Amino acid sequence: MKNKLYENHLKEVMAKRPVFGMTIYSGCPQFVELLGYAGFDFAFIDAEHCPWETTALQNAVLAARSTGVSPLVRVTKPDMIEIRKALEMGAEGVIVPHVRTIEEMKICVSGAKFPPLGRRGFDVNVRAAQYGFDMGGVEFYEEANRTELVIPMAEDFEFTDQLDEMLAVPGVDAINFGPADFSMSLNCRNNTSGGNSFYDLNDSPADIAMKDIIAKARPKGIGVMAPAVPPTYENAKKLVDKGVNMVIMGNDFGNYGAALKAIREETLAKFK
Fold first, then answer.
1. Residue 100: C-alpha distances to residues 20, 106, 108, 255 (Å)
2. Angle at 9 between CA 113 and CA 75, to 5 degrees
3. CA–CA distance from 81 to each of 53, 75, 126, 203 (Å)?
4. 50-75 mean pLDDT
5. For 106-121, what is each residue's pLDDT tens digit?
6. Distance between CA atoms of residues 203 and 73, nearest Å
7. pLDDT, tens only, 113-168
8. DSSP output for 51-109
């Protein structure tokens, strides 16, 4: 029987409603804990753009588990060892950046899933299996295959150029669409009135690509993740109305910075 702290439930929640999370860049476990207290569904723990190795993520994963928020770890690349290690330390899912080829798509599944879905290395002496304590090997790999999420990132034109073939790879649970990198892969700076144009999802080339992913992924039971920029109700609702069911509500640096700016403008400036 698996300890309740390590029961995976995000897939179950996603079947009922959209889920909401935040990216954690800082490496601060306390920020991850706060997501759970605030009622977020998942923590997007980033190891691609942050100065920590995958094996140093365990405190953030433990912080997420302690408050009931699902830890999703973004590894640095499509690599079977990195993917496996993130899941073994207790992540509920892996997010894999810059998946550009069918082979890389298959690596995402092979590293995360046990046979017959993939070729993940097996060992029960890991946190995800409670180190073999009161959890049998068969129970471990069956539950892992059923509940852990594989989330490749569509953030390059190569992904959408072969979208049908990408989505035909079995074992993928969701696609994380990255509008900024996708726009840059096209050497395209979207024309918007203010804000970060690389994240424009208002009839931009990135928006068109995302809609195509949604139209082809969701009928297959594959979720779609995308960022609400800025993280407002209005922007989140636009994404959900389009068919996104995993919404990223900003990141710890951005949201903390926005709070500091508000304090500076609303209070500090009045005393200077």
1. 26, 11, 12, 30
2. 45
3. 12, 10, 14, 38
4. 89
5. 999 999 999 999 999 9
6. 30
7. 999 999 999 999 998 888 888 777 888 989 999 999 999 999 999 999 999 999 99
8. S--GGG-HHHHHHHHHTTPEEEEE-SSS-HHHHHHHHHTT-SEEEE----SHHHHHHHH
Q: Of the residues 17, 49, 146, 264, which is catalytic? A: 49
pTM for the whole structure: 0.93
Strand partners, 151: 95
- Structural tokens at position 244: 């996104």
The pLDDT score that the predictor gives to residue 189 is: 65
Q: Among candidates 132, 54, 148, which has minimal Cα distance to 93?
A: 148
Encoded amino acid at 259, one letter = A
Residues 6+ apart with CB under 8 A from 221: none
Active site residue 49: yes
CB atoms near residue 67 (< 10 Å): 17
Q: Is the pLDDT of residue 190 over 60?
A: no
What local confidence, expressed as pLDDT, does residue 180 receive?
92
Task: Give the domains, in start order, of the chain with CATH numbers.
Answer: 4-271 (3.20.20.60)
- Taking the C-alpha atoms of 69, 48, 18 and 227 in order, what is their torsion angle to the nearest 10 degrees? 130
